[in-house]
Amino acid sequence: MDETELQALRRKRLSDWLEVNGGAHNVCERRKLERKVESHISQIINGYSFGPRAARNMEEKLGLESGYLDGAVNDKTIATLSPFALELAKMFDQVTGQIPRTIAYNSATEAILKVLREHAPQPTGKQVLPAKRKKQHA
């Protein structure tokens, strides 16, 4: 892959990542990045040079693993999520501000645990207790 193709790949991966994460404005706001970073992202997506140093710098600012924009980091985690999990993640990304986001996460976690407890299989048969350890003498 030549440098032109690699820069196109970086732009595509950056654009796709931003789309999944609520757009450049929301990402920059959540990460408390300066306004010029959002402007720089726009320039990059619209064809501004996006060499390896700029890519690593952008990955660091956005909290991505080094090499993500080059395709060196695999999207295994995203690929293994169910459509329901992706939908839930997108809803959380729409919650702006750290305190409301934390409240939303906590509330969702409580609701999920409640449903799981209600639908957990009932224990059957005799419960097996762990064996007692014998004291070892030195």
The Rg value, from CA coordinates, equals: 23 Å
What structural class results from the helix and strand content?
Answer: mainly alpha
Number of strands: 0
What is the CATH C level class of the largest domain, in words?
A: Mainly Alpha
Query: Which stretches are poorly predicted, pLDDT < 50 over at least 5 residues?
Result: none
Q: What fold name stands as the CATH topology of the largest domain?
A: 434 Repressor (Amino-terminal Domain)
Q: In CATH terms, what is the architecture of the largest domain?
A: Orthogonal Bundle
User: What is the first-to-last residue Cα distance?
Assistant: 65 Å
What is the mean pLDDT? Answer: 82
- Which word captures the global form? elongated
Helix segment count? Answer: 7
> Roughly how much helix do the residues carry, as a percent range?
55-70%
